Amino acid sequence: MRADHPFLHYSESVFVRQPFRTLKGIAGGYIAYPIAESREKRSVRPKIDELRRHYRLEMAPRRAIAHDRLVKILEFAGARVPYYRDLFASLQFDVAKVREDVRYLNDLPYLTKDVIREQGQRLLSAPLEQTRHYACKTGGSTGLSCTIFYDQDAADYSSAVTFYARERVGKLRHRSELHFACRFPDQVVPEWPSREDFKCFAMNRSNIFFDRIDDEGLEEMWQTLKRRKPYLAHSHPSTMYALACYVQRKYGGGNAFAVFESSGELLEPHAREMIAKALRCRVIDRYGLAELGVMAYELNGHESGFQILESEGWPESRLLEGNQDGAHELVFTGFRNRLMPLIRYATGDLAKVEERPNGLFLTQVVGRIHDVVPINGVAHPTHHIQDMLDHRVGGIQEFQIDLRTEPPTLRIVLEPWANQDETTAKLKHFWQDAFTIAYVGHDDFVRVGSRAKFRHVVTA
Questions:
Q1: Which residues of the chain have pLDDT under 50?
Q2: What pTM was estimated for this model as a whole?
Q3: Domain closes at, from 368, 389, 404
Q4: Which end of the chain has fewer CB atoms < 10 Å from its terminal CB, N or C?
């Protein structure tokens, strides 16, 4: 049976009604999820329980646990990872001093994406072929992209953190969630049921696939949301902000879900206000990155602050030299990923770490902003273009779109093995003559702002 069979559409209309919606959620969350976890050889639920116990503690014991985990990941990296073994030796760095006084951590240099790309395999504690692993490519919004490898334990902790954080805002197992995802133009209708179908059932999740955010695309999103009525909707804030403006303009507002979870780029105050007002929902922000997973979340709502999940990493913020605004860059040492430990990783995002009696919090957050690019008269979000280049074109290290030219210029840095003619043919297949294509080196990208920061889209 194909996934677009009328019977499945009818079933969807039945299972969005009560009590069938709750019964489906209970069956998926409490029966199918443990089965899926076992079949996939994963261990997520015990880690969720661990997180619950951790955050029931007062701040002092939580801070002590984080300090101990910091020392242990330093000991592990110094013994098992070639890059850190050599670095510690060259600096005569003694991990035992960090146990006595965490300020000795400052003796280590910051890790950057440049170092990750340069060191490659030397940042791994074991050969990839010897361990189950997951590759995750960074988005490139705060520097040129690189690939991070997670081991199984780190991937399970990442899933557990997302589950726990959503649980804190009321998204329990029996309540559904909806995720906005890229729709590819050559995407075929799959057979049903598939592995992905069972995964979505077990997680009580569905997807909205979209490739445009003009009125036609936004209306399709809105009707899908109204039909499915999820408890939580998750997307980039730029996408949800566009939807909120559209719903406010056309319908005077409306409600289709209880919680909007923002991620992937900066949630600006005016966007938060419009989304909450037009879509009549709670707006929850989270901070995550491909390198480490979710590291901060509004666990008790926006008013209570942007809480750092210190169970997962040691946060720092360094004052940027020469910045007249007193901006700080966010730095993390991850605790969970022993395949590729990241120690004092400079994220490129601007935020300050503030310690309060009940936890650590992010303040003065300035993060990634995804732009909208017109392609053949249709508005497309940058993250859709990036997904297309990564998953349909391939062979591209980095890209930039210059909207100052007519038509816009698409600058591309190819992988050494990629072919210009084949890449051009694929680009024209998907987007015809929407761009002037320029194959360049990294130094040919336009840098913007006082910090010469890389942006995928250049407008001025």
A1: 450-451
A2: 0.85
A3: 368
A4: C
